[in-house]
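hiii so um. not sure if this is the right channel but i have a protein structure encoded as tokens and i wanna go backwards to a sequence. like what aa goes where. can anyone help
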């Protein structure tokens, strides 16, 4: 839902188009954030509603910008870093686009692939951390 996430999605689509690749967009609802959370009664419900709006915005970006590019959207729930790593490993993702605060995901993903048939590819992985300040 952030401007950075939207820019990353568009960048990923444009890069996939230029390289003949595919876009797998993943949104993870951070449900562990709400364990023992008691700031407001309906905080989790409000966060889920906001996440649903973000999902619809991302799907609209895919519909508008990804013509001619294979693009899929997935949703998950749990710890975002763990879910991204698990998803990337299962889907054999070779480029991750993530916001600056999640740059450590790449090294965790490389470690998760160590010793697997994808280990050589993991060493070549790139993380693109987009910042709205530079755009």
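sure thing!! here u go:
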């Amino acid at each position: 839902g952030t401007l950075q996430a939207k820019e990353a999605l568009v960048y990923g689509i444009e890069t996939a188009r230029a390289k003949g690749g595919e876009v797998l967009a993943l949104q993870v609802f951070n449900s562990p954030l709400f364990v023992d959370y008691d700031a407001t009664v309906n905080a989790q419900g409000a966060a889920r509603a906001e996440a649903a709006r973000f999902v619809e915005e991302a799907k609209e970006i895919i519909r508008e910008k990804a013509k001619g590019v294979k693009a899929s959207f997935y949703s998950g729930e749990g710890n975002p870093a763990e879910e991204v790593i698990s998803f990337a490993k299962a889907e054999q993702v070779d480029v991750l686009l993530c916001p600056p605060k999640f740059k450590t995901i790449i090294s965790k993903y490389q470690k998760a692939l160590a010793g697997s048939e994808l280990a050589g590819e993991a060493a070549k992985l790139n993380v693109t951390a987009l910042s709205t300040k530079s755009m």
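oh and Residues 122-135 have pLDDT under 50 and may be disordered.
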